[in-house]
Fold Phage late control gene D protein.
Amino acid sequence: MNNVNPSLPTFSLVAEDKNITQEVAKYLTDLTLTDYGATGDDPQSDKLTINLVSPTMMLPSKGAKLKLAIGFDEFLVEKGTFVVDSVSLQGPPRAITISALAVPSSNTLHPYNMQSQKTRSWENVSIGEIVRTIAAENGLLSSISPELNNLMPGHLDQLYENDAEFLAKLARQYNAISKATGGYQVFMVQGTGRSASGNPLPEVTVTPSGRTYWQFAHRSKASTPSKTAAGNGGTLLVPYIDAQTGEHKVLRHGSGMPEIPSGFTQPSRQAAEAFIRSRQQDAERVAANTSQTKSKPEPDYLISMSITQPATPELLALTPESTVTTEGFDPQADCNWVVDNVAFFLSPYEGMLVSIELKK
């Protein structure tokens, strides 16, 4: 890795076994990969968003599989397989936005099976049995913390819930994480520092550079997440970097209070606009399912930090639950953290940026 040139960001994109990297690179304005982690109240699939400007490029079909790797020079890190969820056009010029959601790479069943609503009950079965059963139904292997495997949660009802939501709700009861990734259904105690295959997650030290933007928050009182993120009132604040001046700016969406920052700093105004469109699409999916029972949101983390800066080869392996040590920011902010979620932004104009949300 010492010979990798961090000023030469690159990517690889394979669509249904056809390498389309060169074609996409020719028209690319920006590419965003977001790994949402597995501790949220409303589980979200990891997301790939690609923005292009092309007068002729054919649109991928909904359901097409995209395999992504990102990196620098000749060094690439595999980031998984994504299924095209939506494609939109606008112009002039003819601009294309492709949104794709992550699916477990070895899922042999329909990639949206985890999202199908089910109603059933679980009686006198351990957490391990529940997770293994759901994993097998979805064509996955299972990875379960030993301390959770034999616990008996008692009678459980899965009412109009998909498997991802049901397992996420169960995980919150045991301070655990639940996520389908890389061919596994993971159900682990938070902070174990290990991947689905049992390998240690990366531990990295992050220091500020001339292009680092960071925020540190130490709240004395937990706050309730706003509905703004789903587009239901209030004002969503999306920070972004002006491609012409390099200044940090904010794009406002909605009106009134509360004003809620999105967290990630987008690499351009166009990426900020695409982020807002993506949130609107997510809100429409939620609104379409009004019969689903919503559980009470968990409080936000009392101590949190967000960092956006140029990516490096060492940072490419970061995933939720990885350990980050911050140095050189502020005496209060310099400490050990756990990654909550992480996003990578790649554009021909800005290079590659990484945005990390950290928690204590």
Summary: The first strand starts at residue 9 and ends at 15. The domain at 9-103+214-223+263-286+293-359 is CATH 2.30.300.10 (Phage tail proteins - horseshoe like beta roll fold). The helical segments are 21-27, 127-137, 146-149, 163-173, 269-287.
